[in-house]
Specification:
The chain is about 55% helix and about 15% strand. The protein is of the alpha/beta class. The protein folds into four domains: about 1-210, no CATH class; about 220-520, 3-Layer(aba) Sandwich (Glycerol-3-phosphate (1)-acyltransferase); about 530-705, Orthogonal Bundle (Arc Repressor Mutant, subunit A); about 715-810, Arc Repressor Mutant, subunit A (Orthogonal Bundle), CATH 1.10.10. The strands form six sheets. Strands 9, 10, 11, 12, 13, 14, 15 and 16 form an eight-stranded mixed β-sheet that branches. The longest helix has 30 residues, at about 605-635. The chain is globular, with a radius of gyration of 30 Å.
């Protein structure tokens, strides 16, 4: 029997090898060297199928894992390496029964662990999913869906599954389970073996839903469901009564809005798009780095409703994040896209890829806002993952924008409809070494009218395709909305109403807090790269130019600061040194290289300086604290450590909302001590026995400290303008004051050659003004006008002492 099975596998192996294309997703790639006589590896799969086992063999070979068709010897006894949970269905008659062999083998291996204490076998669950088609309503199901929609297909059905779906096979390797842990923790009797197999079945079911998505609802079925929604039915009745129109006309208007909004998801479009994007990324980027993707799979496996909230840099964001999610073995989300992207032919393509379209403003259109809210709620109710951008639009400056709270509010209102699954937000940092629209952004910031997207713009972008360096997708720490509400509003569940979405009094303040937490979480998982670091350094240097040797040294210094005192544990830092990073940037033509008799000079042209400022702003927040500390040390002959901490605790909270920083006072104090310790270890600063800090008297070291300190210069200038003007102009209206601040900022930008849109941005100034009000440095009189508080005098010297005297005099004059 064994010889026949081996011969059958031999015959089938070649067609499987040629035809089946496996996408492998491994939660944790094991070192095969760890496998030995006392730590053998076993696999558990769903179906006892020759095609499954041979596809598994093909995947294991790629990962250098042991052959699943081999047997394992433990204490003289031989065991199949692969457990199969289900027998295939019979061709005629009733379905196949559960395979008892897997249970018996599990019991035997557990017993072996009871006898041999040194034994620690590893069981790896492997889920083979043929095709990624979601199940659909039967009357709309395709051939591929009908083929795949069976737990244990018979051999004939499996033949067609391999034939039609074999090119799109997902092989998901989960984290291994230790038999030793199971034996020591739960025992070795037959009940444990049965429980282990039951857990494996449920685990595979959850993974399949995570990979293919919940049951797919046809677009027209969604419209019918929405038209039966109590809120929309009542809205139509009110429209009929208030506007004196017929019910048929009101329903026609509602259907037109639904048609404008709703997506039309097709898995076939995702597969075609994935192939095109795979080609595109190879043309555009030298690599896409993905971090913390395991978090996504864990959430999906646990049954969470996943909501992706990325930062918004480029139109490429829509494509890149969707592609990466699919590559990680998960179903692609439904994507909230701006209505400006609904142009032919992109609009229909995006719809079939899962996009639904949203207008820039809902104001004054109650029917639109209600239908959109109920459509979003229906997506959550049906279990679809969703992706939207809380910034509302693409950042033109490279900094995170102030979040728009509408989508978050509707998300919480959906939760108040009684959704049983937990809703969890996954913040995503998207970073690029080149953003294709960056040139357009500067034109718009300079006053040019924003150009509408069109097919001609797409052709132009395709024509200009070239190597854009690397892309970065970092998934941050998830935010469970259920837990968040429990912390913010302990009795929030009392507002649950399965019929009518509620808008309790606590909704708006809670949404505002949640929105800030999301933006902070995005910034925590930022990615440093060669372009952003070089942009940060050159913009801090005089004339935006350094010698090659000095720039490489500065890069090493900036990298050292983050490696030894990182902004957060989620920050990703390049493994290369300064020389390698600079060579990479030069290869991308991001800097100008000029040679003289002393060597290379690296600089930024006027146009490059504008572009590179964008990338500088992507990561500036990660260096604000070390830059401030270096600035304090540079501008003070000697200073007590407690005074440094006091400076930090006074100034950093004012910048928290502007840069979406995460540390509280205790964490800031701890981070300050860590940074000072690193500077001392690297012999850039020293502390006397009396506790005073000074800089080391070394030219190269002083240059590094001074340049890092320059990174916070523009922020300090903005604070200086506000602290100076509020004293002179009190009392003054809020809008008038912000206009005065912007006017001074514009004047300074000309005098000091600060070509920075964010420096003269009114919203950015208002963020600082509001922060100073929040911390009591600016007060309001009885008429609501702004005025300097008594504490402003404690802030002014801390800020003014850190600003160049010439610039300070310009402001004071």
């Amino acid at each position: 029997m064994l010889a026949f099975r081996q011969f059958f596998y031999f015959l089938l192996n070649l067609p499987i090898k040629i035809w089946v294309n496996c996408r492998i997703v491994a939660d944790n790639v094991l070192d095969n060297k760890q496998a030995n006589n006392n730590k053998p590896i076993f696999y558990v799969v769903r179906n006892k199928s020759a095609s499954d086992l041979l596809a598994l063999k093909k995947a294991c070979k790629k990962l250098h894992y042991p052959d699943p068709l081999e047997q394992v010897t433990i204490d003289g006894k031989r065991y199949d390496r692969t457990f199969c949970l289900e027998q295939p269905s019979r061709l005629f008659g009733s379905a196949g029964t559960t395979n008892q062999a897997a249970q018996l083998q599990g019991e035997a291996i557990l017993t072996a662990h009871h006898i041999n204490n040194a034994l620690d076998a590893q069981l790896i669950p492997v889920n083979l999913i043929w095709g990624r088609k979601p199940t659909v309503e039967r009357n709309k199901a395709s051939i591929g869906t009908l083929l795949a929609d069976q737990e244990s297909p018979n051999w004939l059905r499996k033949f067609f599954i391999v034939l039609f779906l074999g090119r799109n096979t997902l092989v998901r390797f989960s984290d291994p389970l230790s038999f030793r842990f199971m034996a020591d923790k739960h025992g070795t009797d037959d009940k444990i073996a049965r429980k282990l197999l039951r857990v494996a079945r449920f685990h595979f079911y959850r993974q399949k839903i995570a990979a293919t998505g919940p049951r797919l609802m046809h677009r027209q079925q969604m419209f019918k469901t929405l038209m039966k929604n109590p809120s929309i039915k009542r809205l139509i009745s009110e429209e009929v009564a208030s506007k004196k129109i017929t019910e048929e006309k009101a329903k026609k208007q509602a259907l037109a809005i639904m048609d404008e909004i709703a997506g039309d998801y097709r898995e076939s479009m995702i597969r075609v798009g994935e192939r095109i994007l795979h080609w595109l990324w190879n043309r555009l980027y030298s690599g896409i780095e993905v971090n913390n993707a395991n978090t996504l799979r864990e959430l999906a496996d646990e049954g969470h409703e996943v909501i992706y909230v990325p930062c918004h840099r480029s139109h490429m964001d829509y494509l890149l994040l969707t592609y990466i999610i699919y590559q990680q073995g998960l179903v692609t989300p439904r994507i909230a896209a701006g209505i400006n992207l609904n142009f032919w032919p992109a609009g229909p393509i995006f719809r079939k890829a899962g996009a639904f379209f949203i207008r820039r403003s809902f104001r004054g259109n109650r029917m639109y806002s209600t239908i959109f809210r109920e459509y979003l709620g229906l997506l959550f109710e049906r279990g679809y993952s969703v992706k939207y951008y809380s910034e509302g639009g693409r950042s033109r400056t490279g900094k995170l924008l102030e979040p728009k709270t509408g989508m978050l509010a509707m998300t919480i209102q959906s939760l108040l409809r009684g959704i049983k699954r937990p809703l969890t937000i996954v913040p995503v940092y998207l970073g690029y070494e080149h953003v294709m629209e960056v040139g357009t952004y500067h034109k718009e910031l300079s006053g040019s009218k924003k150009q509408n997207e069109s097919i001609f713009g797409v052709f132009k972008a395709i024509r200009n395709l070239r190597n854009y360096g690397k892309g970065y997708v970092n998934f941050g720490t998830p935010i469970n909305i259920n837990q968040f509400l429990t912390e913010q509003v302990p009795d929030w569940k009392s507002a649950i109403d399965e019929v009518e979405p509620q808008k309790p009094t606590w909704l708006t303040p809670s949404v505002n807090v949640l929105a800030d937490q999301v933006m902070v979480a995005i910034n925590k998982c930022a990615a440093l790269n060669s372009i952003s670091l070089i942009a940060l350094i050159l913009h801090a240097s005089e004339n935006k130019a350094l010698s090659r040797q000095e720039l490489e040294a500065q890069l090493d210094f900036f990298l050292m600061m983050q490696r030894d005192a990182p902004y957060s544990d989620e920050l990703t830092i390049p493994e290369q040194n300064g020389q390698q990073l600079l060579s990479h940037a030069i290869s991308l033509n991001k800097v100008t290289v000029e040679q003289d008799s002393f060597g290379d000079i690296i600089s930024l042209s006027d146009s490059a300086a504008l572009e590179m400022r964008y990338y500088r702003n992507n990561v500036l927040h990660t260096y604000i604290l070390p830059a401030l500390i270096c600035r304090i040390l540079d501008r003070t002959a000697k200073i007590n450590q407690q005074d440094i901490i006091e400076h930090v605790l006074t100034l950093m909270p004012l910048l928290k909302n502007d840069f979406f920083l995460w540390q509280n006072d205790e964490q800031l104090a701890s981070a300050t001590k860590q940074i000072l310790s690193v500077l001392a270890e690297q012999q850039h600063a020293k502390q006397s026995k009396a506790g005073f800090w000074t800089l080391v008297d070394d030219h190269n070291s002083l240059n590094k400290i001074k340049l890092l300190g320059e990174c916070v210069e523009e922020t300090l200038l903005r604070l200086t303008i506000i602290t100076t003007l509020i004293k002179r102009l009190s009392p003054i209206g809020k809008n008038e004051f912000s206009e005065k601040v912007v006017a001074i900022a514009k004047r300074l930008s000309v005098i000091n050659n600060i070509n920075a849109p964010e420096f003269i941005d009114k919203k950015a100034q208002m963020t600082l003004i509001n922060a100073m009000r929040e911390h009591g440095f600016i007060a309001s009189d009885d008429d609501g006008k702004l005025m300097a508080s008594s504490t402003i005098e404690t802030l002014k010297p801390k800020v003014h002492n850190l600003v160049d005297i010439a610039v300070l005099q310009s402001i004071l004059r």
